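Listing S7. Sequence submitted for prediction.
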Amino acid sequence: MEHRFNLIDEPWIPVADKGRVGLKDIFTHPEYRTLGGNPVQKVAILKLLQAITQAAATPQDMDAWQQLGWQGMADRACSYLAQWHDRFYLYGPEPFLQMPAIAKAAVKSFGTVLPDVATGNTTVLTQSQTEKSLDDGERALLLLTQMGFALGGKKTDNSVVLTPGYPGKSNGNSKPSTGKPGPSVAHMGLLHNYCLGTSLLESIWLNLFTDAEIADLTVYPFGLGTPPWEQMPEGEDCHIANQLKGSLMGRLVPLCRFCLLADEGLHYSEGIAHSNYKEGVFDPSVAVDISGKEPKARWADPERRPWRELTSLLGFIRQGGRSLDCYQLKLALLKARTQDAPFAIWSGGLRVSSNAGEQYVSGSDDMVESLCWFSPDDINEIWFNHFQTQMIQLEGLAKTLYGCVMGYYKTQLMDGESFAKQASNLFWQLCERQSQALIEGCDKPDTRQILRRQFARYTTQVFDQFCPHQTARQMDAWAKAKPNLSAYLQQEQP
């Protein structure tokens, strides 16, 4: 197929308030504020933009990073993209992030690999779930997300093996195995975290690692590495593939699927099998607790919104405090705190279910994301202690509410578990409205008082909603179970 649709020049990246733009636009338009698209697309694009800027302009240390600035980084990225322009064609002899040798694999429809499209015997709930034809820009974005976020299961044609003798795509009886989940998803859908600036270029700059930082990241023994578009692997287990397994570049663009675009779908097989967090290797944007016997990752959870994870994610602010290891956040935050501008913490991901090796999105699974803004002056140990206290007490309120709703139904000899769970979820949804106010005001006594009264109101409001009190019997149960919030309202820090 001829050279066409170059990702540098053509529009395919969703940008908020702008629509779709090309890679060159990203680095030449400082007014772009932030990425558009869903949380999975945002993470995949941020990883690609980081890989491009790391290849173009990795600074030596913090001083060099400061000196470079977002302008210097953008200029170098433009020069780099001009140098490698021919490797960013979606079609042609060296198509972007694709393996022409995989053409022997069966063609899968685009809908097969999209988690939010109903295929096979899945029930179609809304019109948006039906499969539609994709233009080149949508195909480019789909291809990129498959590199790290491919779902595990029988979708892959693993009968095609490019590295002779490679055992990773067959099970014990030498039949093709089902595809493993992408490293950015793992078992249930990992939560990814980034520090963002007030513009897209500033966000990319904040997330740029220095040589010194990469050298300290022991999870990538081969250091920065080479981006795959400069040097594509020949197979699943060749020298280049093994280099990608142990480098930061290989983690930013993991090539966990070998793909080749066809007219109505893509040739689709398992690609490079990366280690996962249990083996001590993970994406820099993933939060992992490595303090216990075995590493524990934070998953995207639609019932536990990401802003509630802030105390764990920011635990490193407190001296000697336990925290999750999220390199992307920790290193970017150090940089953000040296600037005068406000910054945000963004978390997002996709929760998935799995059954017998097949991953899918169903029931309560969903994409989640949250954005919380901070001022560099405010985020310190004193602030953290206040914020942590308030969050612990909010958790206490949610537990009180759960217990009270359970008690109300128990008094009437009814099972109240599902109501108690719904009540707790609604309570947290209401609290989320005040999450930004809590971040900004948790270290101010007056603001704390106002917020506490508000959170107490939410508690009684939700209790009343889930515990009807019309009949005498209901009234009696309601009065017995009603939450007593006086202790919470009186708890105030000096």
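Caption to Listing S7: primary sequence and predicted structure tokens for the chain studied. Residues 4-91+184-374 form one domain. Residues 441 and 447 are 5 Å apart (CA to CA).
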